[in-house]
Structure of Zinc uptake transcriptional repressor Zur:
Amino acid sequence: MKLREAINQLKEKGYKTTAKRKDMLTFFAKADGYRTAKDLIQFMEPTYKGISFDTVYRNLHLFDEVGILETTVLNGEKQFQLTCTDDHHHHFICKECGKTKEIAVCPMDEIKNDLGNYSIEGHKFEIYGLCPMCQSA
């Protein structure tokens, strides 16, 4: 998802697009992979002195609920990135830097056969490891 799409999605859902929210979304639009709330606060702090954790978490929750951000848990911490709008795919996620690489293969193609008459309502498939940059570090 691009920044403009994210802002439009917020507007379409009836939410205000404040400067603070635009800056938060800009952070994720420029990020390469998943980022933590702490990363976002560090980015926002120079512009918004004393920005509260509550404000950041409330907006992260809103963005997730609206479908602008997707989440994962890395090293025991919830992390966020802009939602992908490409074709159906999954991700390899670097446990060190949070960068992602798309994976076109979907294991659900095989699993559907094993589940027979079960009703599948969604799925999430992620592979974790170290990217080439972090392996060489």
Q: What stands out?
A: The mean pLDDT is 91. The domain at 90-136 is CATH 3.30.1490.190 (Dna Ligase; domain 1). Helices lie at 3-12, 19-30, 37-44, 53-66, 108-115, 132-136.
